[in-house]
Amino acid sequence: MEKKAAAMGAAARVSGIVREFQKKCDSPIGKLHNVADSMAVEMRVGLASEGGSMLKMLISYVDNLPTGEEEGLFYALDLGGTNFRVLRVHLGGKGKGLIKTEFDEVSIPPHCMTSSSHELFDFIAAELARFVATEGENSHPFPGRQRELGFTFSFPVRQTSISSGTLIKWTKGFSIEDAVGEDVVGELNKAMERVGLHMRVTALVNDTIGTLAGGRYYNPDVVAAVILGTGMNAAYVERANAIPKWQGPLPRSGDMVINMEWGNFRSSDLPLTEYDNDLDVASLNPGEQIFEKMISGMYLGEILRRVLLKIAEEAEFFGDSVPEKLKIPFILRTPHMSAMHHDTSSNLKDVASKLRDILEINNTSLTMRKVVVELCDTIATRGARLSAAGIYGILKKLGRDTRKDGEYQKSVIALDGGLFEHYEKFRQSMESTLKELLGEEASDSVVITHSNDGSGIGAALLAASHSQYL
């Protein structure tokens, strides 16, 4: 009798912790409307002045997005970690589109990541030159022209033009002091000159803007791009005359792409829990990137681990002792969570195997596995609904959530990133929530499309749309 009573008491404690967590994560449609309203307000504040908003609303200097009429051979360099990619994209012009894409991936030697700017960029330029040498005779459609390159540089940069930007700081294991504060495009151009490569950087971009470019190339109705992966961000097309902090002459297109850096968004309407707060305090950047910490692939698995740890400690969920592996931060990754969430087997065997293989938790009951799936669903659904509210905030800022001249404007959102591409239940929840926010009439005018490889092909397309030969 005592054992039975103890088991019932533990089950009640588990249920109580789970229900409390679900209640705190709840994101009713009214709350999401408030989040979207706050996003639109912060966007306006960020466009008005530097440092006025938690959203940086960075001016990208991209004022010409691809139209599909670009013609020629263009290159891209995608540098964002310990590997970089070089791409060659052959564009056929109007009606022909993208004819051919070739790429190569290169590992950066560890010493180049910590030595000198000269050494890093010389290595990159040499690899670029090697790749260009595989172009083949007569393959360049405009002989004699200087080759043009789109440079995706996924480190914090203060952009000063479409083809220049100073490095603010290194991340991801890089530490090259003499490059900080320098123009990264200038450093690359000088290195290309040193190796005799006749090429210039036409566009310096990040992966979100590349995704926007890739989407626009195929569809003129693309107005924004969102990355939902390990990290997250959004960029969109703004009217240049709606950017009070823009000091230069208005571009001929009348448009300017804005890099929102929306991961830093925060609102009193965000359904934060004790687990989110604890995760934030323990992070490398406490108080920052709150929106990202609730949504992105970097953190969803860690939120799940923290909830499981609490019910293991307070309700003996996994037995008398707390599994040691469960105490290790970030041991549960979002792909693990996604695999468990999508387990459709009658006995949830994938959940059992993940708990066994990753956390060394054996002999889980079906009831326990169902609780894990339930937690996965709560965490993913909250993240998906919040990301939909963010997208809706962009549409509100652009006035695309209401009728214009009696009808809704067609608005296409280009999305990329592993979370969007591979976490099916997350994607479905996000798309259905966006429809719910828009309402039945407006929802048909908004389309989500997958824009793959924006950080690579998108950069080459931006080199084309900002070509000196246009």
Automatic annotation (TrEMBL):
Gene Ontology molecular function, alphabetical: ATP binding; D-glucose binding; fructokinase activity; glucokinase activity
Family of this protein: Belongs to the hexokinase family.
Entry keyword annotation includes Zinc: no
Organism: Trapa natans (Water chestnut)
Example of a GO cellular component annotation carried by this entry: mitochondrial outer membrane
Subcellular location: Mitochondrion outer membrane
This protein's pathway: Carbohydrate metabolism; hexose metabolism; Carbohydrate degradation; glycolysis; D-glyceraldehyde 3-phosphate and glycerone phosphate from D-glucose: step 1/4
Name under which the protein is recorded: Phosphotransferase
Stretches assigned to the Hexokinase N-terminal domain: 18-217
